[in-house]
Amino acid sequence: MLYNYGSINLDHVYRVPHLVRPGETLASHGYLVGLGGKGANQSLALARAGGQVAHWGHLNANDFWARALLAEAGVNVDGILETRGPSGHAIIQVDDQAENSILLFPGANHVCGRDELKNMLTQASAGDWLLLQNECSALADAIELAHDAGLKVAFNPAPMTDAVLKLPLESCDLLFVNQGEAAWLAGLPEDSSAERLLDALNSKLPGCQLVLTLGGDGAWYQCNGQRHFQPANKVQAVDTTAAGDTFIGYYLAAVQEGCGIEDCLSLAAAAASLGVQQQGAADSIPYRREVEQVLASIRSTT
Ligand code: RIB
């Protein structure tokens, strides 16, 4: 089983001609509210890919429609608990070039502490996975407790902050990073090559599996001496929100199926390429049959 202690956000998405500038008042030309949060998106992607996932998190009772959506997709939601304060939410601007900017209010994603995590982890067994992103509280406790209980820890340090540098990352088994996160973690310039970033992270965290996602420039895997590159499918993006989450959910579902690294990467890349062609976060996450069709068409042309 994979347990995802992850954020659940209500995403308020505005389509804008350009991302609002400091001091500017800008009218949007589209608005929708939907399920989001890196955690919830990743759980949904895992479930739509056919994976087994139980989500742990918190929501205000008024927002339990988000829990129902996850349950409908096949996510085990017994660990999504009610809290009194406001749920987490995000204000997302998406411009006409598919670029986005995201403002987060953590809300209920920051109510969980060490004792509750300890309690949650009693459900898990050695060998299970715990998936984390950087939108929830008590991450150092989560990593340490899961590692000590023999779980494998997958971490996506997004959105990246200096606090991540103080986490016990040496207890993680798998890290999903984009270019900026990799550079920040490695202490290198953001325009460093993928190979340089991977080598630096590998020296810092030997034995940890590294997945570096570069959007339209593909994705890399490295663990010690083993390295793979997955090119991106060339598509016209309309909204890249949750593309990374889709990639991660599909990648982990493939890991659960026992796929090799190259198959995990190609499934994840195909899913992300479909996701960026749809608007929204959770709403953009494709179903497995659609992703298999993309893979089949790639295979037929190579
Ligand atoms: O990765 C996309 C997600 O980031 C959005 O759904 C938003 O809620 C923020 O968490």
According to CATH, the homologous superfamily is Ribokinase
CATH architecture, please?
3-Layer(aba) Sandwich
Structural class: alpha/beta
Please give the share of residues in helix: 25-40%
Q: What fold name goes in the CATH topology slot? A: UDP-N-acetylmuramoyl-L-alanine:D-glutamate ligase
Strand order of the largest sheet: 5-4-1-8-9-10-11-12-13
Small molecules in complex: alpha-D-ribofuranose
Number of strands: 13
Q: Could you say how many structural domains there are in total?
A: 1
> What's the CATH first level?
Alpha Beta
Write the layout of secondary structure elements.
Layout: E1 2-5, E2 9-16, E3 30-36, H1 38-48, E4 53-60, H2 64-72, E5 76-83, E6 88-95, E7 100-105, H3 114-121, E8 129-133, H4 139-148, E9 152-156, E10 174-178, H5 179-186, H6 194-204, E11 209-213, E12 219-223, E13 226-230, H7 243-256, H8 261-275, H9 288-301
Parallel strand pairs: 1-4, 1-8, 2-6, 4-5, 8-9, 9-10, 10-11
Antiparallel strand pairs: 2-3, 6-7, 11-12, 12-13
Helix pairs in contact: 1-7, 3-4, 5-6, 7-8, 8-9
The structure holds alpha-D-ribofuranose.
Compact overview of the structure:
The chain has 302 residues and is α/β, with parallel strands linked by helices. The chain is built from 9 helices and 13 strands. The strands form 2 sheets. Strands 5-4-1-8-9-10-11-12-13 form a 9-stranded mixed beta sheet, with helices on both faces. A 4-stranded mixed beta sheet has the order 3-2-6-7.
